[in-house]
Design brief:
The chain has helices spanning about 1-25, 35-65, 70-90, 100-130. The chain is built from four helices and no strands. By secondary structure, it is mainly α. The two termini are about 20 Å apart. The chain has one domain (about 1-130). Helix 1 packs antiparallel against helix 2 and helix 1 runs antiparallel to helix 4 (about 100-130).
C-alpha cells in the first residue's frame, strides 16, 4: 500500500515539474536577466523534463510488461538526488519562478518526491532480493 502511495507522489511530482517547465519555457524565463541565462535555464529544464518523461514512461512500460523496475528506480532516485544537490548548491533555485503556482507546487512537493522515489527504489530492491 505504501509503495502505491509513493507511486502517486512520484507521478504527481512528474506532472508538476513538467507542467512548470513548459510554463517557464512559454514565459521566457522571467527571473533571468540575460538572453544566455534564459536560454540556459530553458534548455536545462527541457532536458530535465525529457529525462523525467522518459524514465516515467520506462517505469510504466516495465510495470505493464511485468519486468523488473528496480534498476530503473535506483537510477531515477540517484538522478533525482544529484539534481536536488545541484539545484541546492549551484543553481540556487534559479530555474523556478516564485510567483508561478507551478514553481511553488514543484518546490513544495520535491522533498516528498525524493523520499517516495528513494523508498520505491529500496523496496523494489528488497522485494527483488527476497525472491
Amino acid at each position: 500500500m505504501s509503495y502505491r502511495i509513493c507511486e502517486v507522489v512520484v507521478y504527481l511530482f512528474l506532472a508538476l515539474a513538467v507542467s512548470h517547465a513548459v510554463l517557464l519555457h512559454r514565459l521566457g524565463g522571467p527571473v533571468l536577466d540575460t538572453p544566455d541565462a534564459i536560454f540556459l535555464s530553458q534548455t536545462l529544464m527541457d532536458y530535465r523534463s525529457i529525462i523525467m518523461l522518459g524514465l516515467g514512461s520506462l517505469y510504466v512500460f516495465l510495470k505493464i510488461t511485468g519486468r523488473d523496475v528496480s534498476p530503473m528506480l535506483v537510477i531515477g532516485a540517484t538522478l533525482a538526488w544529484v539534481t536536488f544537490l545541484e539545484d541546492s548548491l549551484a543553481l540556487d533555485n534559479v530555474l523556478f519562478v516564485p510567483e508561478l503556482i507551478t514553481g511553488k507546487a514543484t518546490q513544495f512537493t520535491r522533498p516528498f518526491f525524493l523520499v517516495a522515489i528513494t523508498y520505491m527504489a529500496i523496496e523494489s530492491r528488497r522485494v527483488d532480493f527476497d525472491d
